[in-house]
Structures are given as C-alpha cells and as structure tokens.
Amino acid sequence: MKLKTELCDLLGIEHPIIQGGMAWVSTAELVSAVSNAGGLGIIGAGQMPPENLELEIYRTRDLLKDKSSPFGVNVMLMHPKVDEIVEIILRLKVPVVTTGAGSPGKYIKDFKKKKIKVIPVIPSVALAKRMESAGADAVIAEGMEAGGHIGELTTFTLVPQAADVVKIPVIAAGGIADGRGIAAAFALGAKGVQMGTRFMCAKECTIHPKVKEKIIKSKDRDTTVTGYSTGHPVRVLQNRLSKELEKLDQQGMGEELERRGAGTLRMAMREGDVEWGSLMAGQCSAMVNKIEPAKDIIDGVIKEACEMMNLIRSYIG
Ligand code: TUI
User: Which atom of ligand 1 is nearest to the CA of 127?
Assistant: First the structure.
C-alpha cells in the first residue's frame, strides 16, 4: 500500500514520514536507514561540535544506497556555534534542513539560494505564518506530547490551526508512533508526520540499549516536563535526574537547573546512564513495544495508516 501527498513530491521521498533530528540519537546509521527505506532521515546536530557534523554528513552520504536520496540536518538554534553549523550545511549542500528551539528567519534566504529545503519546527500559529512569509518550504507543527524541548500546545490543537493559516505543507509531530496517529494527523490537515521516539527504538539507532529498554518498558504516565523555570521546558522519561530537576524547578532555580542538566543528554544516549542522564522521549514512549529495522517501522505504520483510513471510510453511511 502507498500513501502519497504533496510533501513526497516536495522532498523527493516515497513515504510522507520524517524521522525527528534528535541530538545524540539520530546519527548516520539511523538517518541512512530511514532515507534508504523511503522516508526522510535527519541528522540531529544538537550541540555537536561543527567538525563532528561534517563527518556525520559524509558518513550518511556514504551509507545511502542511492546517492541521490534526500536526507536532512536538524539545526538546534540555541547551539553556541549555530553560524558554523549553518555554514557546513550550506557548503555541503545538505538537501533538507529542519530547525528547532528558535526562529531560523535570518538563515532562510541563504538556504534557499543553495536550493536547500527549509522546514522549521513551529510551536505556535504565529510562528507558522512568519516562517511561511520568510520562505519556508513546509513547517513541522510539534505538540507538547513530543520529547525534548517543547512548546505549550498539543498536536491535536496546533496542527489544524497551523494548517488553516498556511499554504505550505504542515507536518505533524508529537505523540505519533503508529499508523493510527498518521491517519489522525492527515484528518487534522497534515501532509506528513515526523516521528522521533518510535525511531529511537529502530535497530539501526545507535543509542545505548538501556535507553531503548527504558522506552519499551515505559507506561502512559512515565514522562514528565522539567525546566519550566529556565524558559526551555523539556519532556523526559522520569528518573533520578528528572526528580532532582523537578525540585529545582519548584524552587525557581532555573540557572542551577541548567548547570545540573548540562551534558546529561549525552550521558543517557551514548553512555547508557539511565538514572542520571537526560532521557528525552515523548509521551508515545509507552506505545513503542519492540526494536525493529527502520524499514519495518515505516512499512508497518504506512500499512496501518491505510487500513485505518479505510476503516474510517467504511463509517460513511
Ligand atoms: O528542538 C526541539 N527539541 C529539542 S532541542 C533539544 S536540545 C535542548 N536541550 C536543552 C534545552 C533546550 C534544548 C532537545 N529537544 N524541538 C523542536 C521545537 N522547537 N520545540 C519547540 C521549538 C520552538 C520553540 C520556540 C521553535 C521555535 C520557537 O520560537 C520562538 C521564537 O523565537 O519565536
């Protein structure tokens, strides 16, 4: 079964599925597996030193079966060396850029000049409009069900409101882990979806196995949000670190919280410290129940979404 939207033509992909560009998580192995399977793999530049990003782009290209397959890089706009990250993307002509944790306005023209597709994550309707006016090719409307840095709105409310005000494609993110979520996203006006947490449990994802195990064992209420007092709230799976950060949040100690959190994402994802590392993951962690190849994830959710849409069609009287 096939599912095609205008997003597939825009990006040159077979399936309207984007893999979230997660810092310390989406490395060349996962990115190339998703792109090889007909989705769009995205390298998470996160807080990477710029030279590491360059290497990761080369490694991704090397692992692509069809060298012309598109892939992307996610630019975390709070990166202290964001200008250098952008320079590398421009120089190496990465086909697609997604952005997070800020407005990429001042970079969009440079990306467009190099024919790089730009897809900002937007947490609000106002930013969706601004990004369309600035020349973005699509936007990712990410609800607060997502893992990592989040906005205030839910996917269910943000996606239709964004779809109402922009002409460019809206991609739904936050809380989507299976074909039902994809069918729902289409009903809300999305032309594609981005999944992060589900791809953390892809076989090709190089995060520590203990993190995959935590996601697989997690239940519906196992995530929490820390960092409201810093102005950058982050959704994580609960552990000893999150409990400590919650206390600092209650005391309004944002600066101390930021110091305490620094470096902990790497500790979790690369070293497997599931107690004192930051386990950024979405509310749909509980819906992820096994480790499987990225291709099986993509083929499975597409089939499920088609079946769900057929079922919904059968309700029409
Ligand atoms: O960026 C993400 N998720 C992330 S980034 C990250 S690294 C980090 N670590 C510690 C603290 C903060 C970040 C981990 N997870 N998702 C996309 C996203 N973007 N969510 C929310 C936003 C966002 C927020 C405000 C996008 C734009 C924005 O604009 C404000 C403005 O300038 O108008």
Answer: 33
Q: What is the pLDDT of residues 75-93, one digit of tens each?
A: 999 999 999 999 999 999 9
Q: Does 225 share its domain with 186?
A: no
Nearest ligand 1 atom to the CA of 151 is 21
Overall number of domains in the chain: 2
Please indicate, yes or no, whether residues 38 and 161 belong to a single structural domain of this protein.
Answer: yes
**Does the C-beta of 127 come closer than 6 Å to ligand 1?**
yes
Looking at the structure, tell me whether residues 33 and 110 fall in a common domain. yes
Q: Sign of dihedral through CA atoms 232, 238, 244, 246?
A: positive
Which of 181, 206, 231 is the last residue before a domain boundary?
Answer: 206
Nearest CA to ligand 1 atom 15: 148
Predicted model pTM: 0.98
pLDDT per residue as tens digits for the range 270-288:
999 999 999 999 999 999 9
